[in-house]
């Protein structure tokens, strides 16, 4: 059901024209749409910091959200899930900002957020290195997630009426749609949205927040290994709909089998 698994890994380094979810693939974000504070000190900041990069992404596509920092954060998260930001490589905020057509400031702020999430680490005077991760870390994340989510799902299966589960049908179908076109970034978002909606029925906001953060971390790519194939995404997505069907039917035996297989199987 999940995308972060021991079978998937980072895709090859950037190729020209890659980075499909990034802002502005062939064109820069127009300067009149970038907040003044985000572009005013671009030259002096980049010169003063002297940051450089060992690997640079290709020019990104235009973005549509209002917050520059939010646009960049979404684009970087998508690139991480897709394996387009390569584990072990160092990327500087000025270089990425130049690709996005914005100053280094919103890129640096987005990278700081990713550092908190464990996706990158700060390299003083150079930029940010994408965290190198392996199967053991994913297995540990899966174990912690299982301790949190499995008991909650089993409890909800016994108490939540069928009509409330039916409302989640579009979320399960969204994972199938993303998997059908092989869009790993969209799949990651829809996958987490489905799990958040299920866990939200518990009424425990802290549990939902912690589980979502663990889920996001489990989706970053491995250091090496084959990228997830479309067929594998479709199989994972099918688990969402199967689980929802079992919850609606209140078939506790099937629910228990599905959720335990999800966290103990290869998917983690």
Structural account:
By secondary structure, this protein is mainly alpha-helical. It is built from 12 helices and 3 strands, in the order αααβααββααααααα. It has helices at residues 36-39, 42-49, 68-82, 93-100, 104-116, 135-159, 162-166, 169-180, 184-200, 205-218, 230-249, 252-264, and strands spanning 90-91, 120-123, 127-130. A 3-stranded antiparallel sheet has the order 1-3-2. The N and C termini lie close together (8 Å). The relative contact order is 0.17. Residues 3-21, 23-50 and 61-65 have low confidence and may be disordered.
- Gyration radius (Cα, Å) is 20 Å
N- and C-termini, Cα separation:
8 Å
Strand ordering within the main sheet: 1-3-2
Unreliable sequence segments: 3-21, 23-50, 61-65
Largest sheet: 3 strands, antiparallel
Order of helices and strands: HHHEHHEEHHHHHHH
Quick one: how many beta strands? 3
Overall structural class, as computed from helix and strand content, comes to mainly alpha
**Shape assignment:** elongated
Strand residues, percent: under 5%
Mean pLDDT: 77
Number of helices: 12
- Residue share in helix: 55-70%
Protein name: GntR family transcriptional regulator
Region (Disordered): 1-66
Biased composition (Basic and acidic residues): 29-55
Domain HTH gntR-type: 66-133
Chain-wise SSE layout:
Elements: H1 36-39, H2 42-49, H3 68-82, E1 90-91, H4 93-100, H5 104-116, E2 120-123, E3 127-130, H6 135-159, H7 162-166, H8 169-180, H9 184-200, H10 205-218, H11 230-249, H12 252-264
Antiparallel strand pairs: 1-3, 2-3
Question: What is the structure about, briefly put?
Answer:
The chain is mainly α and 268 residues long.
């Amino acid at each position: 059901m999940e995308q972060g698994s021991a079978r998937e890994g980072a895709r090859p380094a950037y190729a020209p024209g890659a980075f499909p979810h990034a802002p502005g693939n062939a064109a820069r974000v127009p300067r009149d749409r970038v907040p003044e504070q985000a572009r005013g000190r671009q030259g002096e900041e980049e010169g003063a910091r002297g940051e450089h990069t060992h690997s640079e992404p290709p020019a990104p596509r235009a973005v549509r959200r209002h917050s520059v920092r939010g646009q960049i954060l979404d684009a970087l998260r998508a690139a991480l899930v897709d394996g387009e930001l390569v584990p072990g490589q160092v990327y500087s905020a000025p270089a990425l900002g130049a690709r996005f057509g914005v100053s280094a400031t919103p890129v640096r702020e987005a990278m700081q957020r990713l550092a908190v999430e464990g996706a990158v680490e700060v390299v003083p005077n150079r930029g940010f290195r994408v965290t190198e991760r392996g199967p053991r870390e994913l297995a540990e994340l899966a174990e912690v997630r299982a301790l949190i989510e499995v008991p909650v799902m089993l409890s909800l299966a016994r108490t939540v009426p069928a009509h409330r589960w039916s409302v989640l049908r579009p979320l399960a179908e969204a994972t199938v749609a993303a998997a059908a076109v092989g869009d790993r970034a969209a799949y990651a978002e829809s996958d987490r949205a489905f799990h958040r909606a299920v866990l939200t029925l518990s009424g425990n906001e802290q549990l939902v927040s912690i589980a979502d953060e663990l889920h996001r971390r489990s989706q970053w790519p491995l250091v090496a290994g084959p990228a997830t194939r479309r067929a594998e995404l479709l199989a994972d997505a099918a688990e969402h709909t199967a689980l929802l069907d079992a919850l609606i039917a209140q078939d506790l035996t099937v629910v228990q089998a599905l959720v335990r297989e999800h966290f103990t199987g290869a998917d983690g």
